[in-house]
Amino acid sequence: MSAGTAKLNVTVAEVKPINDLVTRFKFIRTDGGELPTFSGGAHTVVEMQDDGFTRLNPYSLMSDPADRDAYMISVRRDDQGRGGSKFMHSKVAEGLEMVISNPVNLFSLDLRAKKHLMIAGGIGITPFMAQMQQLAATNGHFELHYSVRTASLGSYAEQLSERFPNRVNIYHDDLGQAIDLENLLIGQPLGTHIYICGPKGMIDWVRGKAAALGWPREAIHYEEFLAPASGKPFEVRLAISNKTIQVGENQSLLEALEANDVDAPYLCRGGACGQCETAVVECDGELIHRDHWLSDEQHRAGKLIMPCVSRFDGKTLVLDR
Amino acid sequence: MSKTDFPLSIDSRPVYGVFEMRAGKHHLMIADAEGAEALLDLATAAPADLWAKTHIIYIPKTTGKKYLGKLQALSPDQFYAGPSYEAAKQRIADTFSKAHMGLQVYLAGTEGLMGQAMYAATSAGIPHTAIQTEHRGSTARRMQCVHCKGITEDVTHDPFICSHCGLNLFVRDHYSRRMAAFQGVCIDAEDPGNVPKSVGLFK
After folding, report:
1. How far is B174 from chain A (nearest CA, A)?
2. N or C terminus: which one in chain B shows less Cβ crowding within 10 Å?
3. Closest partner CB to A219 (pick from B22, B104, B127)
């Protein structure tokens, strides 16, 4: 299959619980060779063979980008999710052979920045782990503001504070600590870029505040992977492949395409990168857009759909795929 | 009238816009000559509290005292008028070095002024797409001789003679953001002395 990027055969070298919700996985190449280098902010798509069903979930690489011996990811268990994180937590053990994608970076540092201001919420810390190691190695100027629910659920907070005592600021929700965003933003020197990874509410909060304070759009970077939501099953007609396929309740349209051997492009599988953009040939019903790739206008026009996260409700949907 | 419609050209050639108000706690406006009109036009639409947050750096050039009174009447937080961009350079560099994110930059007037201030602003870390420009006044060009690298200011004719090395230079639309100058290329290199008649293209 040519969709996505080249694949890597890896073996799970370590499974380490970090706290009640988060577990860290270490992958090495099954053939013993070196892994490709990557840049901080990159993710890999992990293939999970779950009971005859293939799940493909993207996870940010959190290990040192210069370390080619192993990749590390951290997975937060989501009991309300569709099962990917539960699979990682319950079925993946040391020694298991898995397939992951080459790294793809949709959240890279803008190295023209004079300073990198990172704002993380919860498991959103992972891409910054790699970025901070990259910047530390290249003498970059950065500062992290990391919001966690409690000290015990603050993955890597202690370790980061120890390594970068003057650069890392931790905020504990249960102690009523919160980022003083307005003053933080007002005080940043010219040439600062801001990076946000965390819950949607946090991303919207920071983007909104920064825009109101006159920050240029080009200096604001964020990563928000959406997990595909479940929804009503629906039928899709594929004009090029000449197939009619069913999209199940807990399946995304992209997954249904793949399950039917239709070669559909993708990179992020989370509505962010634009790679899977597909033209709508005919639509009698309502497209349920959930991506943040297409503009509001494009959503209204209904000529395009992002199969990784969006769905359909109605009589007929024909896609150019 | 101080406005010019520039013909479409190659991608390298800068294009300019019309100022709009943007959110921000601090505003830096750098203008020369008729560029003052762009600031005064902005003043008709801007909220009254804008000027208390604004630093104006103005180089009158040949307009003398014509706009000075009107600009000062806006009561900006800081106002500087000086003889040349070179003279204002220290002040501009100092302003950027002390500035914070959210600073809005407005450049108005000739291409030479806007180009040089644009380079200072982007070097300070502002993305070039976030800097507003509005062309007013002279279309004379700041030219770099690609042979001796010398800069000739306020070029109005094409071809022209490099003020540094004396070559006959053809005025290109090829622009260098780093030099803030259009590129001048020797027009009679193949056949020395065979130089087309110089035409006044820019005013």
Report:
1. 24
2. N
3. B127
pTM, 2 dp: 0.88
Residue in the structure block whose two tokens are 């005064």: B40
Q: Which two tokens stand for residue A67?
A: 């370390």
Q: Are A127 and A60 in contact (CB under 8 A)?
A: yes
Count of CB atoms within 10 A of residue B54's CB?
24
Is B15 within the bounds of a domain? no
Domain final position from B106, B135, B164: B135
**C-alpha span between A318 and B158 (Å, rounded):** 59
Query: Is there a contact between A191 and B22 if contact means CB atoms under 8 Å apart?
Result: no
Contacts of A219 in chain B (CB under 8 A): 101, 127, 130
User: Tell me: the pLDDT tens digits for B1-49?
Assistant: 588 888 898 999 999 999 999 999 999 999 999 999 999 999 998 998 9
d(CA A32, CA B47): 65
**Residue B88: strand, helix, or coil:** helix
How far is residue A265's CA from residue A282's CA, in Å, rounded to a whole number?
21
Q: Mind listing the pLDDT tens digit for each residue in B77-119?
A: 999 999 999 999 999 999 999 999 999 999 999 999 999 999 9
Structure token digits, residue B3: 């406005």
What residues are paired with A9 via a beta bridge? A99
Distance from CA of A237 to the nearest CA of B (A): 42
ipTM of this predicted complex? Answer: 0.88
Collapse the DSSP code of A81 into the 3-class scheme (helix H, G, I; strand E, B; otherwise coil) and give the result: coil
Angle between helices B85-98 and B111-123 (to 10 degrees): 30
Element (H, E) at A84: helix A84-91
Query: What six digits make up the tokens of A256?
Result: 């249904």
Sign for the CA dihedral angle at B173, B174, B179, B185 comes to negative
- Among A131, A77, A8, A82, residue whose Cα is nearest residue A269: A82
